[in-house]
């Protein structure tokens, strides 16, 4: 056990012996450190005004990622480096190339969102050389600006590396020093931190995690905190104790195990996307549209599933792919593992099949076999950084006779849980993959779902879309030249 | 004080004015060093207030038990209406319909009932949730249909504009049609939420730092609530993190509550609502239902127009009167209606009180106007752009607006023609038609729509401004005026005007925070008027100082006044050239006053609301946009692929700043008409109360091809400051082109024979509905 939180704030080592488990990075910066450059715009990880950069050691490699400070808990920064907009100017007071580009391109008007954009652009610069316009847009999807219309900010994203080459960036130049300092901070001891509002645990091994979850079955398990953060900032819940999974290195692992991919529960959306993209470009596009870049950086596959949201976007895709969920818990001195089909994990609205002491350890995702067709579509009011009205993911297996031998149609946003369309699937079996099959499945969908009206869409629209996505699937798999997408990677790749 | 009616005849010349200077705060913005209210170092003893709000939308408050609030950790005090020493009234239009705290009648979900003050904001926020209120709840009237169904109570006097005999003209028209359009509201989503910090002083003094577009109104409201004279209250704002109209009146509540608490506790108090509470409590852009009847002919000419614009105003009048008025003032856009009648219906509803929002009703009026055109186009089978052209204001006989003002500066036809050429509209349109035939799922659409926007507050008395300019002994200048900076670049524009006037560098002008202590009785920074009014007031102050300096120099160096000129970098006195600061230093020793106030009142304007007649606008700002979109007819999803804009800024004071207003205004308008949808549930709770559910455009929503140009060689006909034109609001309405491009794409599924009647916001769901409706009608 270690009872001191340690991280770098810029170059400065911060050591805290007491800290509330859910104190946000933003409140700590603004209220405690009086570093007010980082702004609060929404306190729910949506607007990006609070964007900061976290430097962390991913299995020994230093990664810089933009995250939302408003929903990130300070103790989760243990062993990390925190960079804020205040760290960018040079020692001589000169603007950093990202800042200079924003000024030159007239990228700020009211200026309130600006520090967040600067940090998102810096994170992009630190990670990628010569990003395309699409990539700049992706990197900024989690930053809202209400003044500029974004054009000058995109221009700044293109300009920044012209002002000074990225290789010369002092944050890249200083990587080794920072990595060494972080290495010294990273140990395998469990961090146990007491604050007025409760206790925070951050184990570093699966075993220690299992012990803690077993010892505190009522604890809140926190991964990326992109949803739990809102329980604190919006619902004003007190969480005690909090068990943070981010330091458990083994949970970050993604491995190719032949027939399937094994995705550790703490694998982040960026890495999961890269892995799933090898299965299908449809998954690449689906995951491109998860939250904003900050949420994709913080969010994890385990969190997206374990959270049990009816509108999480990974579960429909993974259910369609027939993924298996691996849960683990401490039992009589050993780790007891349980593998279940992912779809059976979701019992009812916000109710999951997670037993006391259990935590999600990994997801096994089968690769697509020959004869399988796959599709994933997310429909939302806004393309980027929005929550699905409907998310549909489908896997069809065609037999040698060209007829559908297996159908897995999974939807989000259609019921209280991510759910398969059993009647529509049945309607497809034995049919050739054609217009009639789509019509039959579409006609069966009302038996499968009674969706809700809400602020995202009407029930009627949801049901209509659920069927129309099958039609899109058919067209994309049988009429390659037909344009079916108006935006995104698939549109740029030829369906557009 | 100068004669306000004097026309300052200003030559257009090279120099600071007209140069694309960066926003004065840009280096601070990017470094996180620009201070917003919540960033300012807290005064010693700061406390935090939070609002306790109603949990129902309509009913009577029977009992409010605040014991648990009082005993919550950190709580210092709980205040209700009975703690108000002055008036429990912050009605900006003085209709006495907006209490600070509800006392009996609850009129919307989220209405403030009390304030709790605690040592920390978190404690105050937690405590505010602990109140136990008992209500006699009634069914709320949430939308326009419900309000009309219940008798159509109005929050303020409606307006009627009328010219000609519309009933007779409709009868005589070769063709007639009727229709109805719903036009959604819009949340401002200023990135910096509402915030106020009140610091009590000696006597009855109160200093309030607040994110507001209207410091003078906050000052007067705080004074009224505290029951003190306005001279006891000083309101200051250096900058806002966005306003867009949402801080014209909506900051009053937060400032008054902070000041009330500060007064009661004799300690500084800050009030900053959470984003969700901000969105639930504060007003938004009005949503409208526009019912219309059009008389027209087969050539697409409109003969008569009769329209009713009904607006959801919410629980009090606020600015709904002038907002609905401005909707009517823009129900013509660029088009002449030979006979016209327009009526407003500002309806009372049990929702947040809708308020100013960039365009101030004008956009809704104009969206209606473009629907009228579209209806006529589909009814006659003519190209909508051709119908637009045929109905433009023209020469005498076709140049009178529905409010009887003559359109004297009309350049709409030229702007349209030039944009049509630059955007290659006709060829692209033909190509789109052709491509759509071969694309079964994705359809493209294109539309070109113009904008004519009236500049001036329609409340004529607001068209005044003051400035205060100090020249110090070293030649540096401190500039203050009544305009507020919300990102629009007002400060730098006015500073350019001042630096230009003296011939000094921009770095010699210090821009200081707007404060009621320096310039009194200011108008809101609104109606796009900021640089028109404050630029002229500042220039007036500069001219006063220059006149004194000129007289001094003429005497001192024995030259004629007409031989003295303030040129860039130097002052020419006869053959002598000296630095501005040398002149100033000499003038100081000669005891010449180096400080002046300036004042400006817009000339020529007048408006008789009862008669519906007058000359409410000093001039019009014009523009046009051509948008191209792609829609997915399976899902209703769409993408704006290309936009071309030509916009009239007159002789731009700062093309970079103006371009920012055009692009930003366009994208904001596009959001309003596409993905930004406000949804209330049946209980009157705002369902879209956070960015997770309320979707403003993100980076990828902007058009990838975005050709934006300022109209060249187009000085304002009127002698505005350096012949520039206001630019804050007009570009927002360029986004109407997106709605019509979507409509054009939808129409393709009916072979362009059925008017899509696409309402706003055109969410993917609405687009898909329109696709299916058009398909069904075309198949009949």
TrEMBL record, chain A:
SMART domains: CO_deh_flav_C. It holds the Pfam family CO_deh_flav_C. InterPro entries: 2Fe-2S-bd, 2Fe-2S-bd_dom_sf, 2Fe-2S_ferredoxin-like_sf, 2Fe-2S_ferredoxin-type, 2Fe2S_fd_BS, Ald_Oxase/xanthine_DH-like, Beta-grasp_dom_sf, CO_DH_flav_C. Keywords: FAD, Flavoprotein, Iron, Metal-binding, Oxidoreductase. PROSITE patterns: 2FE2S_FER_1, 2FE2S_FER_2, FAD_PCMH. Residues 3-88 form the 2Fe-2S ferredoxin-type domain. Residues 193-370 form the FAD-binding PCMH-type domain. The keyword Iron applies. GO terms for molecular function: 2 iron, 2 sulfur cluster binding; FAD binding; iron ion binding; xanthine dehydrogenase activity. The keyword Transport does not apply. PANTHER family: XANTHINE DEHYDROGENASE. NCBIfam families: xanthine_xdhA. This is Xanthine dehydrogenase small subunit. It comes from Bosea thiooxidans.
Automatic annotation (TrEMBL), chain B:
InterPro entries: Ald_Oxase/Xan_DH_a/b, Ald_Oxase/Xan_DH_a/b_sf, Ald_Oxase/xanthine_DH-like, AldOxase/xan_DH_MoCoBD1, AldOxase/xan_DH_MoCoBD2, AldOxase/xan_DH_Mopterin-bd_sf, Xanthine_DH_Mopterin-bd_su. It comes from the Bacteria. Residues 31-139 form the Aldehyde oxidase/xanthine dehydrogenase a/b hammerhead domain. It holds the Pfam family MoCoBD_2. Keywords: 2Fe-2S, Iron, Iron-sulfur, Metal-binding, Molybdenum, Oxidoreductase. Its cofactor is Mo-molybdopterin; [2Fe-2S] cluster; Mo-molybdopterin cytosine dinucleotide; FAD. GO terms for molecular function: 2 iron, 2 sulfur cluster binding; iron ion binding; molybdenum ion binding; oxidoreductase activity. Coiled coil: none annotated. Belongs to the xanthine dehydrogenase family. This is Aldehyde oxidase. It comes from Bosea thiooxidans. The lineage of its organism: Bacteria, Pseudomonadati, Pseudomonadota, Alphaproteobacteria, Hyphomicrobiales.
